[in-house]
Design goal:
Length: 117
């Protein structure tokens, strides 16, 4: 059934696949992909300062809009490596969303917009 939850999981799969395919077609380094793929998860360190701060830092690092803004800024300023880094970042977010790791509510790490993890 095409429930909103199912569609959000499917969207994650599609974004992860599309970003990975685009990365491949750009001829970028797979070593860098492997090294940087989990980098956005460092944002969870914000939870050391409490759930409200942790949710804010995690959500900033796991929001498609933030990646898009950084790509636009980097592209406009001709920053080398912006496109590959943003594609890795998008692939990470999509891969997180596919199994249900969504944006966090400030109540607890397990409370996400997709479900309780």
């Amino acid at each position: 059934m095409l429930t909103p939850k199912f569609l959000l999981h499917l969207e994650g799969i599609v974004v992860a696949a599309a970003a990975t395919i685009a990365y491949h077609h750009a001829g970028c380094s797979w070593l860098w992909f492997a090294v940087l793929f989990l980098a956005p998860d460092a944002s969870a360190l914000g939870y050391a300062a409490g759930p409200r701060t942790g949710a804010a830092t995690y959500n900033l690092a796991h929001t498609y809009a933030v990646v898009a803004l950084i790509w636009v800024a980097g592209h406009g300023l001709h920053w080398a490596g912006t496109t590959p880094a943003c594609l890795i970042w998008l692939a990470h977010i999509g891969a997180d969303r596919a199994p249900g790791f969504g944006l966090k509510y400030p109540s607890a790490f397990q409370d996400t917009h997709l479900a309780e993890v």
